[in-house]
């Protein structure tokens, strides 16, 4: 009887997926926070004519930041939308290469977004920009989203290299 060699687990892939999972959990917590905030604010507005000050801004920030937190998990799980009309009949290896190239393009865009958000955050800090309803500085949100976009970029690069390298 021949011994069938089991594929060795890629520890880097496991680390990438764990980090992406932790970011997704953080994004889920932010979404839950936004839902509770909306519920409490609407109830306060309806029952006591006292909504939570700045509720729109806080929900906006929470949901926007959560989106960036979810990007890494979607990339790690290859969960982005793919239209495979022209690649259905290609061999699986060639499909992996095509997917890897698309992931490289996505990583480029995520890197660009990260840079733009960081530049915006530094500009907002320099000019002392704050939220409108509550006087909190806005730059930490930009920087946080920039960091999340950078992590999503790195995770997308890891997925791209895994696909381009044949899963090794």
From TrEMBL:
The keyword Membrane applies. Keywords: Cell inner membrane, Cell membrane, Membrane, Transmembrane, Transmembrane helix, Transport. It is a multi-pass membrane protein. It comes from the Bacteria. The chain crosses the membrane at residues 21-44, 56-76, 96-118, 138-161. It is found in: Cell inner membrane. Belongs to the TRAP transporter small permease family. The complex comprises the extracytoplasmic solute receptor protein and the two transmembrane proteins. Part of the tripartite ATP-independent periplasmic (TRAP) transport system. This is TRAP transporter small permease protein.
């Amino acid at each position: 009887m021949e011994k069938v060699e089991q594929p060795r687990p890629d520890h880097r892939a496991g680390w990438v997926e764990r980090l992406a999972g932790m970011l997704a959990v953080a994004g889920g917590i932010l979404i839950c926070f936004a839902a509770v905030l909306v519920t409490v604010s609407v109830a306060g507005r309806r029952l006591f004519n006292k909504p939570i000050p700045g509720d729109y801004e806080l929900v906006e920030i929470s949901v926007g930041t959560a989106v960036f937190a979810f990007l890494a998990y979607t990339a790690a799980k290859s969960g982005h939308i793919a239209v495979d009309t022209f690649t259905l009949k290609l061999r699986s290896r060639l499909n992996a290469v095509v997917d890897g190239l698309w992931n490289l393009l996505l990583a480029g865009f995520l890197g660009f977004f990260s840079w733009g958000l960081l530049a915006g955050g530094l500009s907002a800090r320099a000019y002392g920009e704050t939220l409108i309803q509550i006087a909190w500085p806005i730059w930490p949100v930009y920087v946080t989203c920039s960091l999340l976009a950078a992590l999503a970029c790195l995770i997308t690069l890891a997925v791209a290299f895994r696909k381009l390298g044949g899963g090794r």
